[in-house]
Specification:
mainly beta; about 90 residues; four-stranded antiparallel sheet; about 65% strand; two-stranded antiparallel sheet
């Protein structure tokens, strides 16, 4: 059985140039997107984004991080475990 749907994530972030990366991981599938908040670099801004879920996996994770301005390496990584319901 395969699941199909949309994951909606929203909140606030204080990140360099109001930009961070998000990766939806489910089984072997991984989709990464760039997310932009309404403000950043010392001011919390709001954000909202959608990710498509199409997978037979019943669990996964949402991984978010702030890319380093120096070399793009991940900073402040947060992993949020997810359970997908039919």
């Amino acid at each position: 059985m395969s699941l199909q749907g949309t994951l909606r994530a929203s909140g606030t972030a204080d990140v360099f140039e109001a930009t961070f990366r998000a990766r939806l991981v489910r089984g072997a599938a991984q989709d990464t997107t760039t997310v932009t908040a309404t403000s950043g670099s010392g001011t919390r801004g709001t954000f909202s984004f959608n990710a498509n879920v199409q997978s037979a996996a019943r669990s996964g994770s949402l991984v978010v991080w702030d890319p380093s301005a120096q070399d793009g390496s991940p900073l402040h990584t947060v992993t949020i475990p997810l359970t997908f319901a039919p």
